[in-house]
């Protein structure tokens, strides 16, 4: 009996020393997130760019551009008042000879399609299908933002062949 009492006392003493801290550990959980604005409406009225007919002779030299420049616009509208900016992220099939342009799946060879913001120059301002993005402010009056573009056929290597041109620029919008 005495031995059992002694073991219980020993156990009680150890438990008192260890206490509650020996059985539990404090853990901090950081919780974070972000409340995003509601989406705007993307105006899809005009989304085609037609280069028409052009001569392959215009694209025989490396780094040459077609004379035809086409403009187009994507409008986001009906944005909530809390939306102050829209980010457009671009993706698509890159032009194999210069990934700052979009590739063509048409039958013409050695050509790509360059797309830039309107009022830019045709150098390093291409909206790349690899990492292109463009941020525009939303008008507090119209609750909209216009993305104005210029598009042009381009040959990084020259020696373009005749055939069709077909490309796609995918745009994902993020609202802040």
TrEMBL record:
This is Fimbrial-type adhesion domain-containing protein. Coiled coil: none annotated. It comes from Limnobaculum zhutongyuii. Gene3D superfamilies: Fimbrial-type adhesion domain (2.60.40.1090). Residues 30-176 form the Fimbrial-type adhesion domain. SUPFAM superfamilies: Bacterial adhesins. One of its GO terms (cellular component) is pilus. GO terms for biological process: cell adhesion involved in single-species biofilm formation. It holds the Pfam family Fimbrial.
């Amino acid at each position: 009996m005495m031995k059992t009492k002694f073991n219980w006392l020993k156990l009680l003493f150890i438990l008192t020393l260890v206490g509650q801290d020996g059985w539990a550990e404090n853990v901090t959980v950081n919780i974070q997130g972000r409340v995003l604005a509601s989406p705007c409406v993307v105006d899809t009225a005009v989304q085609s760019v037609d280069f028409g007919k052009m001569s392959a002779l215009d694209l025989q030299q490396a780094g040459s551009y077609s004379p035809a420049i086409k403009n187009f616009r994507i409008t986001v509208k009906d944005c909530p008042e809390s939306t102050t900016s829209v980010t457009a992220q671009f993706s698509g099939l890159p032009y194999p000879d210069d990934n700052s342009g979009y590739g063509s799946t048409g039958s013409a060879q050695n050509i790509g399609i360059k797309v830039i913001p309107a009022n830019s120059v045709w150098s390093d301002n291409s909206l790349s299908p690899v990492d292109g993005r463009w941020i525009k402010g939303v008008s507090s009056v119209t609750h909209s933002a216009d993305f104005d573009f210029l598009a042009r056929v381009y040959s990084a290597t020259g020696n373009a062949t005749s055939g069709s041109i077909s490309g796609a620029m995918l745009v994902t919008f993020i609202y802040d």
